[in-house]
Amino acid sequence: xxxxxxxxxxxxxxxxxxxxxxxxxxxxxxxxxxxxxxxxxxxxxxxxxxxxxxxxxxxxxxxxxxxxxxxxxxxxxxxxxxxxxxxxxxxxxxxxxxxxxxxxxxxxxxxxxxxxxxx
Length: 119
Description:
mainly beta, four-stranded mixed beta sheet
């Protein structure tokens, strides 16, 4: 059985704090097909309470995290005029190592974001 897993973390760089209450969906991608396999909301630390893809459900492949940034920005009073510059932020990535911990954080502000493979 694979021992890999996936976690994420969202930091609000405009306010300098964790992004609590941000909805995240995880999709398995195959060609042009997307299948939602998880949805969660960040806690007070900007993290999910458990891995978004736990060890027992992990499989190497292509995935996409969709961060519902617009809802979060509206809720925190940071939304500008509609349509928002950033509404849903998709990050597509591959996980090839079946025994690895993948950590895909999001650094978010109303007009920009960045990500990286964390630890």
